[in-house]
Specification:
The structure is a single chain. The protein has 14 helices and 21 strands. It has 525 residues and is α+β, with helices and mostly antiparallel strands. Strands 14, 15, 16, 17, 18, 19, 20 and 21 form an eight-stranded antiparallel β-sheet that branches. A five-stranded antiparallel β-sheet has the order 5-6-12-8-9. Strands 1-2-4-3 form a four-stranded mixed β-sheet, with helices on one face. The structure holds flavin-adenine dinucleotide. Flavin-adenine dinucleotide binds next to strand 3, helix 4, strand 12 and helix 10.
């Protein structure tokens, strides 16, 4: 092993054995490469030894995908530079190392401040254009902004605004990927498609990787469940959402969008959940320019009420009156104030039709009010994580159990009915929030002990089967990782999982990368 690059695991690196799912793994080595060359060197060393490899971004994942099951961790935190900008046909593209953190990227784009010292002349010229041009943004917005671009691409992460702009996938223009044996492939949007179900990647050394695209039909919903697969698909889409199982992304080129001129948000407070769903159903058919539609149920609001009461860090949260059982947040992206006013009026109409009262709404027309509503949004998962950590102290075997399933529009009412009825039957405490515009709710069970935790795990399996029957996805944004591998089998069935295995083997014949992700560990080895 290359001693400088690949270090033996020790107590100092204990944090790298876990991610935000709170699962803890084990590893023998760890590497923090600074360049593609170092990634390749680490991969080659592992390949020679037959050592497993787990790639890590910021470890904010919720599916244990970055948690190692033995072998060597390759952590991307030292590869965090923006290395170029391109300006073509009015569009700006940024080339990123995979460890660039989303919050930093947003800051650089928003302030138009980049370290251009190492950029070539073309990139510097694009930057000159960019500085003189209007405002731009990178639209993917997972709530956790400490995620890296590599992690986001590998999970096809999404967020509130994906309702309008789509998940990470459409905003990725080009990627470079190092395979387990150190060969490099690249793929660019608009260049390179599968021929039917035959995908061929040409490596930089001239060799080829030929793989069969799985033949399943993906759900027509928001989806981050396993490999993207479609006849004649763009090759780049096979690499996006591959969950660390096909190779290590070494470079990612992202597309920027023009910043909308006007952003307004409105939180609508409902006395009952059914009215809130009727509002969503009505509003998404009648209102234009809606960028996001978010939902918070009684369980989530109760956790926030408790946080505000107990912790000064959450004192900025608004008071949520006892009559409020559900909150729906709608964000409007518009060209002019007049348009924003019209759209806000249309939202109000849908709200009243669903039984809402105008005084039960909070409107944000400026950045500080929008930031306050964002704080509210982020405080929910943070508070739930803190609650689970407290409960974990009493029973270390429990972890957070959050569903990440989506269904087509016509099944929104059915899926909420399913969640409510079965949680009640099982007498389980829960908090639910998320992207209701995409029929994608994070139902989080809050177990008090191991028995409740295990019961909830079984319940999630039954949900995976029902959601599949509704034409939905078992993971809409967090990726499958290790924790949802069984759900993926429920969703696609053994035949298609075998096709996925064959695809992985074409890229990684020794089955070294991301072991335990997508497929349960024993299956791959
Ligand atoms: C409070 C909270 C809120 C969240 N909200 C959202 C949300 O709204 N939407 C959402 O989508 N997610 C959300 N997440 C989950 C998480 O932030 C995302 O999944 C994120 O994309 C993970 O990025 P990461 O850098 O932390 O990746 P990691 O967790 O480190 O890794 C995730 C996967 O990507 C692979 N990977 C990482 N880098 C590379 C690389 N360079 N090459 C190959 N594979 C790589 C890993 O092997 C692993 O399979 C949330 C998490 C938390 C804690």
């Amino acid at each position: 092993m290359q001693a400088e690059l690949i270090k033996p695991m020790s107590e100092d690196f204990a944090d790298y054995l876990r991610d935000e799912s709170r699962s803890i793994g084990h590893a023998e080595h760890i590497a923090f490469p600074h360049s593609e060359e170092e990634i390749v060197a680490a991969l080659r060393a592992c390949y020679q030894q037959g050592e497993k490899i787990t790639v890590q971004g910021a470890r904010t994942g919720l599916a244990a995908a970055a948690v190692p099951y033995g072998g060597c961790i390759i952590n991307m935190s030292r590869m965090n530079r923006v290395t170029a900008m391109r300006h073509e046909n009015g569009t700006y593209y940024l080339t990123l190392q995979p460890g660039v953190v989303l919050s930093e990227l947003k800051k650089m784009i928003g302030s138009k401040k980049f370290d251009t010292a190492d950029w070539d002349e073309d990139a510097k010229q694009a930057y000159v254009d960019f500085c003189k041009d209007g405002e731009f943004f990178f639209s993917p917005d997972p709530t956790e902004t400490s995620a890296t671009i590599g992690g986001m691409v590998c999970c096809n992460a999404s967020g509130a605004r994906s309702y309008h702009y789509g998940a990470t996938r459409p905003h990725i223009h080009r990627v470079r990927m190092a395979l387990a044996d150190g060969r490099i492939i690249s793929a660019e949007r608009g260049k390179g498609r599968a021929n039917g179900y035959d995908a061929v990647f040409t490596c930089e050394d001239g060799s080829q990787v030929s793989a069969k695209v799985p033949s399943y039909r993906m759900p027509h919903t928001k989806n981050a469940s396993g490999y993207y697969a479609e006849k004649d698909m763009e090759l780049i889409d096979l690499l996006i959402s591959s969950d660390g199982t096909l190779g290590v992304m070494t470079e990612i080129e992202v597309t920027l969008l023009p910043q909308p001129q006007i952003i307004w948000g409105v939180s609508l407070l409902f006395e009952n959940e059914q009215s809130s769903l009727e509002f969503v159903d009505q509003m998404r058919r009648t209102v234009e320019g809606v960028a996001s539609v978010e939902f918070f149920d009684t369980g989530a609001l109760d956790v926030l009420r408790e946080q505000k009461r107990k912790s000064t860090a959450f004192s900025a949260l608004p008071v949520i009156e006892p009559f409020v059982t559900t909150v729906v947040y709608v964000e409007l992206h518009c060209d002019t104030e007049e348009q924003a006013q019209q759209r806000l009026f249309a939202v109000g109409e849908a709200f009243t039709k669903a039984g809402g009262k105008e005084e039960n709404s909070w409107v944000a027309r400026n950045q500080s009010d929008l930031d306050r509503l964002m704080f509210f949004r982020h405080a929910v998962p943070e508070s739930v994580n803190m609650l689970i950590d407290q409960r974990k102290q009493k029973d270390p075997t429990i972890t957070k159990l959050g569903a990440d399933m989506s269904v087509p529009n016509e099944h929104l009412f059915d899926v909420v009915k399913l969640y409510r009825a079965t949680l009640k039957e099982n007498n389980l405490e829960s908090a639910t929030w998320g992207h209701v515009g995409n029929n994608h709710l994070h139902v989080n069970v809050l177990p008090n002990n191991a028995e409740e935790y295990n019961r909830a795990k079984e319940l999630f399996k039954t949900w995976a089967a029902k959601v599949t029957e509704m034409g939905g996805a078992v993971s809409a944004e967090h990726g499958v990782g290790k924790l949802k591998a069984a759900f993926l089998t429920i969703m696609y069935g053994e035949k298609h999982i075998d096709e996925m295995r064959a695809l992985k083997r074409a890229f990684d014949p020794k089955w070294l990368l991301g072991v335990g992700n997508l497929f349960s560990e024993k299956e791959g080895i």
